[in-house]
Thioredoxin peroxidase (Blattabacterium punctulatus), 208 residues
Amino acid sequence: MNTLIAKKAPNFTANAVLNGKDIVPNFTLEQFKGSKYVLLFFYPKDFTFVCPTEIYAFQEKMKDFESRNVQIIAVSTDTEQSHWAWLQIPKEKGGIYGVTYPIVSDINKTISHNYGVLSANWICNNEELKATGEIIAYRGLFLIDKNGIIRHLLINDFPLGRNVDEAIRMIDALQYYEKSGEVCPANWKKGEKSMEPSHSGLLDYFSS
């Protein structure tokens, strides 16, 4: 599979639920280009177990994302009606009530396909189309800069939940690089020493 790193994020137009209550048509990724960073994440299904832990974890860090000018967007292959229903149920009863960032419906599965996170495969046998498993999204996460370019991605299998603090660390690293021109080494955190992106030492080594 060809990587999407450093490429333009595939745009989409789809139905979504905003502010935990409003179903809207024609929600687009393109609307944020030029004004905000976007953290786009996919999850497999509504009304499941690991998914709400991630969805709430992103919501709990909303102020951290907002202070960094980052728009959170969630996507799954469920309908917008399913999203809306789940959003009306309190956390203690298995719902995701209180989540305010957009949750997009990828019912046609085209968004998940374009981002390379769609599970399973289609098989055609004797003109009969079959699927090898559930056609839903893996746990994909994409950091998109203000120019609409994907700068970081992570794709987990279904059982493996993501680390929201790591997503924030990657945002900090990208924004620090954009501001200073310096690169961020392994385990770098905001406020720590960075590195100048110079290859002169390596060139001297090979030319000696």
